[in-house]
Design brief:
- The chain is an all-alpha fold.
- It is 73% helix and 0% strand.
- It has one domain.
- It has 13 helices and no strands.
- Helix 3 packs across helix 6 (81-97), helix 5 (60-76) runs antiparallel to helix 6 and helix 9 (164-171) crosses helix 10.
- The protein is globular, with a radius of gyration of 20 Å.
- The model has no long low-confidence stretch (mean pLDDT 85).
Length: 266
Amino acid sequence: MNASVVRLLQCAVYLWLVGYVALGLPEADLLWDRPVSPVTRGGWSSGLMAALPGYAAWAGVPTALALLALALYGLWREPPYWAALLMAVLFAALLQRAWLAATGGHWLMANVLLWMVLLRTRPTGGVRTAAAQFAFLAVRLQLCLAYAMAALNKLSGTSWTDGTALLRVAADPTYGPSVLLEHPAVASALGHAVLLLQLAIPGALWVPALRRAAIAVALCFHLVTAVWFAIPDMALAFVVVLTVWAAPQEAGALLGVARRRTARSA
């Protein structure tokens, strides 16, 4: 665990949260205040929200604005434990309200935010240091588990190996690309490639000699899906969490660039 890598992860996650709230506010009525998503009863955040009197009538936008303020603070400096925990709770509350609009990236981020409560750049004391190291490892494992489970879930059927899954996405005008409908063999090949990628990345990330190549391939994959299938929120969530695998010198360089740009614009 390196302080620069931890801080890079924190800044990347909080920047993603800023984008999540900023893009969601124009649709706040449908997402959070009077959500289209049916109310669920299983999650702890649902129970927390149900305890708020008249939540559906007033608390959606204030919750989002509070999350936005905390995320902006987190970009400025490392938030204290209570602020990190509050961000995890607020995001989970908003996510439960809009779960029909959520992707795997949103659920990954919800889990990562919980681990980040314990994650510190320079923890003091044996207990806090051990907790931070555990959280750092947990974030890494969480990302690898997300890739592996996505692949195993796809392998449970045949729609990804025969190309049906990608053809269904291509047929939806919201996503596309419709040109894929004319090439089912290409769709099948792409389906196999996605499965291979999602199975290979978790293992490759743990091998130092393969790590840079794995990160580069994963970044290309997510950026392509962000543009091609119009799911930037999901793609960028995975890109953000990939920073936990950055080399210390690379993390330090990226943070330095960010600081210089911030200083120039100030």
